[in-house]
Amino acid sequence: MKKIFTLIAATLMAVGVQAQQTIDLTGLQETDFTFTNGEYTCTPGEGIVSFDYVKGGGVYCKLQVKGLTFNYKNSGTKTGFFVASADYFTVAGKGVQLTIPNVTKGHKITLNVAKKDTPDDNNKRMPGFTATGAQIESDAMTEAMDKEVFVDVVFAASNDGDVVITNGSNAYLIKSIKIEDGTFVLKDGDYFIQHPGGDAVNSFTDGAGFKLQITSDTEKTYSKGSQATIGGIKYYTIKCSNGAENTLTLPEGKVTSAITLYSTLNADAIDSEKPAFWQEVAGTAFKNELEGEELTSCKNYANMDVRTYNFKNGKLNKITFKNKNVQCFFLVKVTIETGTETQPDAVELDLTTGIATVKAAKSNDAMFNVAGQKVAEGYKGLVIMNGKKYVQ
């Protein structure tokens, strides 16, 4: 029987049959969305979730749901701009942009949509869409369509990459989006996991599909911290509870051989009696015995501590990590690739990432190695001088 199914699958691939996945936008819950409180307020209740856009100024704001991003630019306040109900997802207003990431050239995108309002003397606008990165293949919407009569609008991707579909003239209702295989596959490369916004939670999934969850104590939470700028890009840090064990799960089929943690302590000064550090990463315990393990940045989002943990001879889809002693704000950077998870031999800390500056020793100060032996000025490596550790 297994051979038969294998043969069928191989035959379908040979003739180029395209499968489709459907993004169902009916019956959405508040937890299906990520958004920023500064841009939206969310009012759930009685089977309806309403997002009110409250930030003006002509800047695009983003609401993400199930890997899709809805953008809207408004100069004022709009009530009930997005409304999720049991029957459909309501998108009110002209100029909405729907971004579908990583579409393969030639693949079809099908929106099952309806006009929001029944035509009358004041509402005879012709509904219409434009697209970047795709061509409209068929559009069954008409000016005379009644409310809740759903039809398909089909696009064909003209290039590999993102497709942006813009609503040109009217509000609309949407039940589903069908996309041929090849979409929502993250490209290999670097990704930052930041706080997506909203209230404090003990787990969240960002728009790219990375899930972060506190697994040791469900009463501990993640909150949004201040913005940190890394490589010229601003990210919202994640406020992490002291001692919480965190689990980062990558999107399906993606693995990484290292994670980098950017951290700054939620403290005004370093407590020498209780040094803070990342205590455990991917099952390997760290005991604060190596130079570079201690976190020395305090509420300093411009100069965060940086630690890279390498998974020696292994690649993981799910990574645990745990901090010790002091609550901190952090970001995670991962370099992902398509592959199969393999358990690492060990986890090694890349010390070079944990030292912000290299301090030169003064010629009249005595230096010692980590064994307590006095060393000459030309000694290379970790040295102790005046009771502190330096890289020489």
Please describe what this structure looks like.
This protein is mainly beta and 392 residues long. It has three domains: 162 residues, Jelly Rolls; 166 residues, Jelly Rolls (Sandwich), CATH 2.60.120; 36 residues, no CATH class. It contains one helix and 32 strands. Strands 1, 3, 4, 7, 8, 10, 12, 13 and 15 form a nine-stranded antiparallel sheet that branches. Strands 16, 19, 20, 22, 25, 27 and 28 form a seven-stranded antiparallel sheet that branches. The chain has a six-stranded antiparallel sheet with strand order 2-5-6-9-14-11, with no helix packed on it. A hairpin with a 2-residue loop joins strand 3 and strand 4. The N terminus is likely disordered.
